[in-house]
Write a structure and sequence with these properties.
Arc Repressor Mutant, subunit A, 3-stranded antiparallel β-sheet, 5 helices
Length: 115
């Protein structure tokens, strides 16, 4: 399902969704934290720090800091990989799913307003 947008329309949608978050959400996630959260929730299986770092093209220490913050907000959780005890998996939480559902609803509303 391809959607064609002008750059102004895309920015209107993004701006509308972000303004709502800034106004209503005290957690104030960074772009990196939000990108990480979306990757974790879109993945078919729990993600690894190494995989997330590769996907975003940033170092593992930056991923670890972002996961620390998201875990503190209960938006993701760390789990030990039972197949490889050295590996840490990053998994979903109910609070994270609710956060992203709210964000996606904000994007839909902003998209409707941008038409």
């Amino acid at each position: 399902m391809a959607v064609t947008l002008t750059t102004d329309q895309a920015l209107d949608i993004l701006s509308g969704a972000i303004r709502g978050l800034v106004r209503d959400d005290p957690r104030d996630l960074t772009q990196r934290q939000l990108a990480l959260l979306i990757l974790v929730y879109r993945a078919q299986a729990p993600a690894t720090v190494r995989g997330l770092a590769a996907e975003l093209g940033i170092g593992k220490p930056a991923i670890t800091r972002a996961v620390d913050r998201l875990e503190g907000l209960e938006l993701v959780r760390r789990m030990v990989d039972i197949r490889d005890k050295r590996s840490v998996l990053i998994g979903r939480t109910v609070a994270g799913a609710v956060y992203l559902r709210d964000l996606s609803e904000r994007v839909v509303i902003a998209a409707a307003a941008a038409r």
